[in-house]
Amino acid sequence: MKTKAVIAGAATLVLAGALVSCSAGGDDSGDGGGGGGSDASNCTNTITKTDLPVVTMWAWYPNMETVVDNFNEASDDVQVCWTNAGAGGDAYDKFQTAISAGSGAPDVMMVEADRIPTFQVQDALVDLSDLGYEDVKDNFSEGAWKDVSVGDGIYGAPVDGGPMGMIYRTDIFEQYGLTAPTTWQELESTAQALKDAGGPVFASFAANQPATTTAYFYGNGAEPFTYDPANEGEIGINLNSPEIKEVLDYWDGLVDKGLVGTEDQFTPEYIAGVIGGDYATYLSAAWAPGYLQGAGVGEGADAGVWGVAPMPQWDPANPISINWGGSAFVVSSQASNPELAAKVAFGVYADQASLDEGWQQQIIFPLNANVLSSAEFQDYEVPFFSGQQANKEVYVPAADAYTGMTYTPLGQYYYTALTNQIAAIIDGSATGSEAADALQADVVAYAEEQGFTVVE
């Protein structure tokens, strides 16, 4: 089967906006140390306990040097040599090169959860099930663990996630007498009322955010993929199910009626529109306030006008929480000491000081249950939301109820294919249902090219 070789080539595909979706952003320069790989002499941080063994790490969280210093100060077993090898795609490209070469990978690396199967299928990651997982199992939810699992294997130590909510302009809602919709049907009627009153579009449906649309699929009870490497070469693909067609037809209808914008997100033009009140809402993840503030939102005329509410539901009697983004630490199969590397993966960014700084500075939305359940976190009056207790009201319940997604080695190709189909919906060349059928045919054909046996 040629799956591993071809997936290796596909692993270099980069999803636009992927970095933003892992947390609240980071340094995307790729020059923070050059990528030291397994070379423990090329550290960005300073190791003070020079008599201890060293584990190398690539990671791009904005506060990573502080996090590493916190870990090293507390550890009497191992020290971390951290390098910023670039953010997102830059780091993945370097890691893929090291995988192909058989050397040069770090012991531990930060990855977005949806990338894990792409590297796991190449035997590039270590299963952590017997390397400390049981000791930290209760610190994270079922959904957090599922996102870093491939089949029965645990291939990542969760850190942050992106439980979703509806960020909205309180000034626009007050001006037009709107209340936050609790169902997707209410969202459409609210958006129509806003348009009829001469207001802005209600939300955004952007082709360059397929991960968001995938979350919407899960929110309607869809299961786009099934995948377990124990069933070697077999993958389930169900991208034109009734649930997925309903979601795409719904957004197709909003586009046709002019109720949502269709501009690409994460562009200067889009951010200018957010600041200028061109959108009444931003359906996004818990890391979004940090990202928006970093982009200049909430600092000028739009300061003090933001609130957040739970995501709309298809069936309020059976609500489904959804997630966009999230990162973890994985252990490379090139690690010279997997046990020590796993200790680092599970232990770094897990101490109280690092976690507190992460959420208080809006760098991450932590998934550690000890943080999520703490009064300090739940009762925090978020400045971006004018003191609203957004964690307690929206994000913690969403994180606790989230049950996870099934990621596959086809993830990056799937995102590209979905981007193309969303663009077809937007330009009117396909209905939602037609786009779902085309998406199914495209991804199935690609999977079969890679040597998979597709179960539809």
From TrEMBL:
PROSITE patterns: PROKAR_LIPOPROTEIN. Keywords: Cell membrane, Lipoprotein, Membrane, Palmitate, Signal. It comes from the Bacteria. Residues 1-26 form the signal peptide. This is Sugar ABC transporter substrate-binding protein. It holds the Pfam family SBP_bac_1.
